[in-house]
Design brief:
The chain has one domain (20-168). Residues 169-194 have low confidence and may be disordered. The protein has helices spanning 3-12, 23-43, 54-77, 80-117, 124-164. The chain has five helices and no strands. The protein is an all-alpha fold. Helix 2 packs antiparallel against helix 3 and helix 4 runs antiparallel to helix 5 (124-164).
């Protein structure tokens, strides 16, 4: 990303996560939840094993598990490169999520209608009613999911920028820095790591 865009984003980044903890804690919680979610998804796949989408579902869940693991490690160890990978990946996933929601909204009604009609003993009236509500469902999900993803992405970016910017008083592990990161604000010390 260009320096101009990064500078613009820095003005609007949250300084806390959910108003109660630092961005590092928020990134750690979200990435651990991502690891747990991916493990559960691998353990109970939602796509039948005979389906052509089964292998893609496994690949996407493994990718999610790996990415969330990188995020958890980066936040826990304050590792600059892992946090950078996780922050950029969050931006990419956010845009892919928005595109997916738009595409789903475009085809939801027809998809639900044809799925309903393929069941035994379908009724035209019931399938039409269910299909008419499909776009409303997609809209409700998008109105909850997209702002939440934007906020999580901004919190992740805030933590990444904190590690990237020496002017913010932190130096990332693995970047040649020698600052000690306290567990809380009362335990501030500086060490000389070699």
């Amino acid at each position: 990303m260009s320096k101009k865009v990064e500078g613009y984003l820095d003005k609007y980044l949250p300084t806390t996560c959910c108003g109660c903890c630092e961005p590092r804690t928020g990134v750690l919680i979200v990435s651990i939840l991502g690891v747990v979610s991916a493990i559960f998804a691998l353990g109970s796949p939602s796509v039948p094993s005979g389906s052509s989408m089964h292998n893609w579902t496994i690949v996407l869940n493994l990718f999610s598990l790996t990415l969330s693991g990188i995020g958890a490690y980066g936040a826990y160890k304050r590792h600059f490169m892992c946090t950078k990978i996780y922050a950029y990946a969050n931006f990419v996933c956010l845009f892919l999520n928005i595109i997916t929601m738009i595409a789903l909204a475009a085809v939801a009604k027809d998809l639900v209608y044809h799925s309903c009609m393929s069941h035994p003993n379908p009724t035209e009236e019931v399938c039409s009613m269910v299909a008419d509500n499909a776009n409303l469902f997609v809209l409700v999900v998008a109105l909850v999911e997209i702002p939440l993803n934007v906020y999580v992405t901004l919190v992740t970016w805030s933590f990444y920028r904190t590690l990237a910017s020496p002017s913010l008083g932190e130096t990332a592990a693995g970047s040649g820095g020698g600052q000690y990161f306290p567990a809380n604000d009362d335990d501030i010390a500086v060490s000389n790591k070699v």
